[in-house]
Amino acid sequence: QVQLVESGGGLVQPGGSLRLSCAASGFRLDNYGIGWFRQAPGKERERVSCITSDGNTNYTESVKGRFTISRDVARNTVYLQMNNLNPEDTALYYCARDSGLQAYDYWGQGTQVTVSS
């Protein structure tokens, strides 16, 4: 059974850092890519970052230089290190599995990130 479980969200002050985790089960990370998405109230969901099955990474422009995606294949977990956070990063963050058919087929329940002083 495929499952994705996010953790690590919380309340942080502007300029602070958080590390999100996405624990995967039911498949191997070296066979599938993972994307991190976020959705803020009243806004469309956007893909923040992704890592392919080969370990290649990609970031949306607004987080380049601040966020880093990585993975631990042995732990079957993907991480999103978020530094220098600002209020515009406030959102519900999700991870999802890349089906390989230009779509994401399994999603986690999300973890809330709130950046506020």
Write up this protein.
- The protein has 117 residues and is mainly β.
- It has strands spanning 3-7, 10-12, 18-25, 33-39, 46-51, 57-59, 67-72, 77-82, 91-98, 104-107, 111-115.
- The strands form two sheets. Strands 2, 4, 5, 6, 9, 10 and 11 form a seven-stranded mixed beta sheet that branches.
- The model has no long low-confidence stretch (mean pLDDT 97).
Over the alpha carbons, how many angstroms does the gyration radius reach? 13 Å
Distance between the termini: 40 Å
Overall form: globular
Mean pLDDT: 97
The arrangement of helices and strands along the chain is EEEEEEEEEEE
Low-confidence segments, given as residue ranges, are none
Largest sheet: 7 strands, mixed
Count of DSSP-assigned helices: 0
Proportion in helices: under 10%
Number of strands: 11
Structural class: mainly beta
Strand residues, percent: over 45%
Task: Report a brief summary of the structure.
The chain is mainly β. Helix content is 0%, strand content 52%. The strands form 2 sheets. Strands 2, 4, 5, 6, 9, 10 and 11 form a 7-stranded mixed β-sheet that branches. A 4-stranded antiparallel β-sheet has the order 1-3-8-7, with no helix packed on it.
List keywords for this structure.
4-stranded antiparallel sheet, single chain, 7-stranded mixed sheet, 117 residues, mainly beta
Fold blueprint:
Layout: E1 3-7, E2 10-12, E3 18-25, E4 33-39, E5 46-51, E6 57-59, E7 67-72, E8 77-82, E9 91-98, E10 104-107, E11 111-115
Parallel strand pairs: 2-11
Antiparallel strand pairs: 1-3, 3-8, 4-5, 4-9, 5-6, 7-8, 9-10, 9-11
